[in-house]
Amino acid sequence: MTENPFAYFFSCVFVLFSHAAMLVNIFYNGNYDSIKDVIILAVAIAGTDIIYFVAMLFFKQHNFTADFMLLLILNMGVIFQSCFGGVHLSVKHLITCIACLVSCRIGYILTRNHKWIQQQKKYIWLGIGILAVVILTLTGSRSMWIDLGFISIQPSEFMKPLFVLACATSVSEQQNKHKIWKFDIVWENIILFGITAGICLLQWWCRDLGSIPTFAAIYAVGFLMRICYPKAKFSNKTLLIAGGVVLLVMIVGIKFAPQYVRDRLFVDIWSDKSGNGYQQSQALIAIAEGGWFGKGPGKGFLYTVAAHESDIVFASISEEWGLLYAIMTTLVLLAINTIPLINPPRSYYHATMCTGVCAALTVQMALNIFGSCNMIPFTGVTIPFIATGGSSMVASGLMVGMIVASQSPDFQKPKSKNSKKSKKKTNSPKRKKPSGTSDRRRSA
After folding, report:
1. Contact predicate 123/171, CB 8 Å
2. Angstrom distances, CA of residue 264 to CA of 257, 280, 419
3. What is the number of alpha carbons within 13 Å of residue 321 lying toward its C-beta?
4. Is the terminal CB of the chain with fewer CB neighbours within 10 Å at N or C?
């Protein structure tokens, strides 16, 4: 149960009011054939809100801020996705959002106890290895998707929360150094670097180079947290070598990148509006036509462009709802990432875990928005919680669950030997006094 029922109640009212304001906008400005479509959408949103409000009461937490912000942005995404091309409830996206909320609870439960998750470190590494094997064997010819017919799964998305945990669980090993030649080596760092290199090579093999910056950001903040760990004492020589390796990898990556990647790096979208610059040029036109307040829900043209609900979803929102709504959506996502700054995590493990999650979500959002606006090469990475994609939703939900866990960690005190002895004494039978004896103090 919540420790502050008044704050909990007003947070519920704030989320309901925000979603209600968007639904009122649809009622007055939306493109729908029947009022029944708006009512169905409103019932689905309000029902999801209320059910999750009640469900959260069964979890004992110190802070529910991340939960409310997650629910706020998820149902904002359902409303957006239900308006592209006309108002109709996007059942598929609603289901993925519910799956995201469930995975958030799972991530919270699994990562609360730092001692328990520390013991599962090898299984985390094994999980990353199993996902890599699955990608190599079951996704087809250099693909990233497993097509099951009724649903498609992207295994690489589940590598993100596992990789965050791999970085977080390695922090405590920074004091266990081994002298090799003139270098102090921590085996955990070598293993993590190997995992990072393997993931980057795997993403290159799958032609999914857009996800590499996300994994690189997770590794970078994890590396910084290891440097700042008490008594870690990284030498300047080690840091210079690490920086040189990163620079070399970037140069080699650009040099040997596939042709379509190099085309995107140097394409002029306005001179190639029907080729590599098609999506970006259409996205910019839609953002400009939407203005600050948008054309109205369901009244845009961008829904006819491929990946309007995923890769260029920021532009789709800007066209129909306006740039103000699109910016507000990104601010909600950034607010989730700033929660660990407002309420600092209770342990260094939880702090490292939070920085990895925030790096992944922020970089992924930035790649989508800046790519849609032609500020960086178009990567095709989706915005968390807003764009479609079941695998991305579930993986992002797990990572938000890690933020929730950092706000309400589980610290179980080890049972001491003295406490066990005291329990044995209390449980031992009391000796009976022989009959006929009396208490001298009472008789006195």
Report:
1. no
2. 11, 11, 66
3. 26
4. C
**Which of 399, 403, 396 lies closest to 381 in space, CA to CA?**
396
- What pLDDT score was predicted for residue 437? 44
Q: Which amino acid is located at 404 in the chain?
A: V
3-class DSSP state of 437: coil
Q: Can you name the residues that pair with 416 across neighbouring β-strands?
A: none
Q: How far apart, in whole angstroms, are the C-alpha atoms of residue 109 and residue 139? A: 30
- Dihedral of the alpha carbons of 180, 184, 190, 191, in degrees to the nearest 10: 100
The strand pairing partners of 146, in sequence order, are 153
Q: Are 354 and 400 in contact (CB under 8 A)?
A: no
Runs of H (alpha helix) within 120-235: 121-138, 156-168, 187-205, 212-228
How far is 251 from 257, CA to CA, in rounded Å? 10
Q: What phi and psi values does residue 99 have, to the nearest 5 degrees? A: -60, -35
- Cα 359 to chain centroid distance, Å, stands at 9
CB 11 within 8 A of CB 62: no
User: Distance (Å, rounded) from C-alpha 368 to C-alpha 384?
Assistant: 10
| Alpha helix stretches (DSSP H) within 311-389 | 313-321, 323-342, 348-372
Owner of token pair 């087809």: 140
- Ramachandran angles phi, psi of 312, nearest 5°: -120, 35
**Distance spanning both ends of the chain, measured CA to CA:** 54
Over the chain (444 residues), the average pLDDT of each successive run of 10 is 77 94 94 93 96 90 88 95 92 94 94 88 93 86 76 89 92 67 71 88 81 90 79 59 69 62 65 79 91 92 89 92 92 90 82 92 91 79 89 94 86 55 51 47 39
Give the amino acid at 400: V
